[in-house]
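About this split. The held-out portion is used to measure sequence recovery: a designer receives only the structure tokens and must propose an amino acid at every position. Recovery is the fraction of positions where the proposal matches the reference. Here is one held-out target exactly as it appears in the evaluation file.
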């Protein structure tokens, strides 16, 4: 069951349900229902698939495969296949074939005399009937057009295709809305190891070294503030949209991402004054050592900007 797969992976990564709620903005109650398989308690299959997709992406799993498995587990209707329509041509019925020559043939309910034309055909049918079963052969006529039978499945097929496409589109929209409407989602991928500090909605949530090749995601309701000791090592995305490099290599950069941020130039915080920079640098925060761990020649763009403002 998909819920069990997600729960086991969450526990394997040492994450709590509260961590998933904070990282994806999916309500804790819905996360519990997904893990327990209580699908009837979710707001609908479209939203449920959106929740599963975001949950899986947050855990760095194959989201599309899990969404497909989730849909199959919960009875998503397959696209009905329409039966092959029968030929619209009416069948010819031959009745009472015996030892005598065929005198009449019924085509679509209309009788006509074709004794001379089909005499040889009748003889051949008599011989065939004698060989197969011996006696009279009766071929039933079907006068009703086959198109009347084929029309109903054809209409169902035309409706089923758009219905499935519409459901998938709704699921995509739901997932996109989940990722953007409820807050700010920032993702970073590291090309080199880097000391990083992260605050969400004014609360510090992470401070430490992120190794090369790692991808981290953070989401807040109002803002996500990231400070990096080697800005060139970070490739950043905002709400699923790639913005590029966080800054230059060896540069200490702090950026504040909000709902109104459109690109990186909208994310730099206001420059601080020289006095505030000096006061902060005198505090034993340990950031100098961490910056040194990233190359020893890092420079703080905020401090530089503050120094220029005081000249």
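Reference sequence for scoring:
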């Amino acid at each position: 069951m998909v819920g069990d797969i997600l729960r086991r992976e969450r526990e394997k990564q040492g994450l709590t349900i509260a961590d998933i709620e904070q990282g994806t903005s999916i309500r804790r109650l819905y996360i519990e229902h997904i893990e327990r398989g209580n699908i009837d308690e979710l707001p609908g299959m479209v939203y449920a698939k959106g929740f599963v997709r975001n949950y899986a992406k947050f855990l760095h799993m194959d989201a599309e495969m899990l969404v497909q498995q989730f849909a199959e587990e919960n009875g998503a209707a397959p696209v009905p296949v329409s039966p092959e329509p029968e030929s619209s041509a009416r069948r010819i019925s031959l009745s009472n074939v015996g030892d005598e020559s065929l005198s009449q043939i019924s085509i679509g309910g209309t009788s006509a005399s074709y004794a001379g034309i089909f005499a040889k055909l009748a003889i051949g049918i008599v011989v065939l009937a004698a060989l197969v079963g011996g006696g009279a052969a009766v071929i039933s006529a079907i006068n009703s057009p086959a198109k009347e039978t084929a029309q109903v499945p054809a209409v169902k097929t035309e409706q089923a295709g758009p219905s499935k496409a519409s459901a998938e589109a709704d699921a995509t929209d739901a997932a996109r809305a989940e990722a953007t409407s409820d807050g700010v989602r920032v993702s970073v991928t590291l090309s080199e190891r880097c000391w990083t500090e992260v605050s969400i909605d004014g609360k510090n949530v992470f401070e430490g070294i992120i190794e090369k090749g790692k991808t981290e995601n953070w989401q807040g309701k109002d803002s996500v503030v990231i400070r990096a000791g080697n800005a060139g090592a970070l490739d950043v995305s905002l709400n699923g949209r790639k913005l590029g490099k966080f800054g230059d290599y060896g540069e200490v950069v702090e950026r504040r991402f909000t709902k109104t941020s459109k690109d990186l130039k909208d994310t730099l915080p206001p420059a601080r004054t020289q006095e505030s920079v000096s006061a902060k640098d005198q505090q034993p925060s340990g950031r100098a050592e961490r910056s040194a761990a990233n190359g020893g020649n890092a420079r703080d763009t905020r401090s530089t900007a503050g120094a220029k403002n005081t000249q």
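Annotator remark: Residues 92-144 form one domain.
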